[in-house]
Specification:
With 156 residues, this protein is mostly helical. It has helices spanning 5-30, 45-77, 79-102, 120-155; strands spanning 33-36, 39-42.
Length: 156
Amino acid sequence: MAVSKIRKVSSWTLMALVGISIVVLLLFFLGGYTMEGSMKIYNNTDILLYWTYAIFFITAIVAVAFSVSGLIRSFQTNAKKATVSVVSVLLLVAVFGISYAVGSTAKLPLNADAAVYNNDVTLKLADMWLYTIYTMFVLVIIALIWGAIRKNLLKK
């Protein structure tokens, strides 16, 4: 059985990323450390962090690119289904906007180290994420219940 080109490319990409990750981890753990009091400060922490950032951003960019290309292809084949996808993303953006607007700017009693985060934008962003998580949790529960009821009704 012939292996398709996409499988070859993805396999080689995976092997390259795993290989680089192993090298970075070896550099981190075997690159030495210095002691500051009772804490170990690893010499190559910056390399590990930069690699982590790179992997995160590459993953995010590729995910968005595949989503956009899939959406474009979906509009060509089934416009109604693609429109539902776009509407769901717009609703999520609306939830972000509403939850940001509702977020509180009341200052928190924080210590001196965390006081830098005690500003209006950070407080509203934290509330936005919390309210969005709560909203999505409730919507998932509703969808589970609705799906179970719908499935039982269709059986009859």
